[in-house]
């Protein structure tokens, strides 16, 4: 009987320990969308052409499905152990010219991206000091 009690106690203890974790799960900041800065929005002017807006802001994340005259630039940063910061700039065109600029969120606020990792995935085997191997490609055959 005493052996059965020990086995049950040990089983319950192991079951409880396996389900509970004090360490926690690793999380990372998750940036999504078009990075929209205050400087970019300040350069927008009514009367700009669509191509000028694309040169300044990049391609829009969203175009209204039923109205091609409305472009949305949305940036969302989901902090790993904090809140969510979201910015949105909606541009309305009439024909080929920018007519209206509306923004939501704290455009003036500064969003800091991690400097040590940057944005995007890392290429295995390349340290931060090495140059990008694509820039230093040499032809395999002479004369190319």
From TrEMBL:
Which residue numbers delimit the Outer membrane protein assembly factor BamE domain? 33-102
Organism domain of life: Bacteria
What single Pfam family name could you report for this chain, choosing any that match?
Answer: BamE
Q: Which Gene3D superfamilies match?
A: 3.30.1450.10
| Alphabetical list of InterPro entries matching this protein | BamE, BamE-like, BamE_dom
Question: What GO cellular component is one of the record's annotations?
Answer: Bam protein complex
Mind listing the GO biological process terms from this record? Gram-negative-bacterium-type cell outer membrane assembly; protein insertion into membrane
What does the UniProt keyword field contain? Answer: Cell outer membrane, Lipoprotein, Membrane, Palmitate, Signal, Transmembrane, Transmembrane helix
Instruction: Kindly list the residue ranges recorded as spanning the membrane.
Output: 7-26
Q: Name one GO molecular function term.
A: protein-macromolecule adaptor activity
Has keyword Transferase? no
- Establish whether keyword Membrane is in the entry: yes
Q: Where is this region: Disordered?
A: 117-144
- Bilayer disposition of the protein: Lipid-anchor
| Location of the protein in the cell | Cell outer membrane
Instruction: Quote the HAMAP family the UniProt record gives.
Output: OM_assembly_BamE
Role according to the record: Part of the outer membrane protein assembly complex, which is involved in assembly and insertion of beta-barrel proteins into the outer membrane.
What family does the database annotate? Belongs to the BamE family.
Q: How does it assemble?
A: Part of the Bam complex.
Designated name of the protein? Outer membrane protein assembly factor BamE
- Please name the source species: Halomonas ventosae
């Amino acid at each position: 009987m005493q052996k059965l009690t020990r086995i049950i106690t040990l089983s319950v203890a192991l079951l409880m320990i396996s389900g509970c974790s004090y360490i926690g799960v690793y999380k990372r900041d998750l940036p999504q969308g078009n990075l929209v800065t205050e400087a970019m929005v300040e350069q927008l002017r009514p009367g700009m052409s669509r191509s000028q807006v694309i040169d300044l802001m990049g391609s829009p994340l969203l175009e209204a499905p039923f109205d091609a005259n409305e472009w949305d630039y949305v940036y969302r940063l989901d902090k790993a152990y904090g809140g969510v910061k979201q910015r949105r700039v909606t541009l309305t065109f009439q024909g080929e010219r920018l007519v209206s600029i509306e923004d939501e969120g704290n455009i003036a606020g500064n969003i800091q991206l991690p400097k040590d990792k940057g944005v995007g995935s890392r290429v295995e085997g390349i340290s931060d000091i090495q140059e990008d191997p694509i820039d230093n490609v040499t032809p395999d055959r002479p004369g190319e």
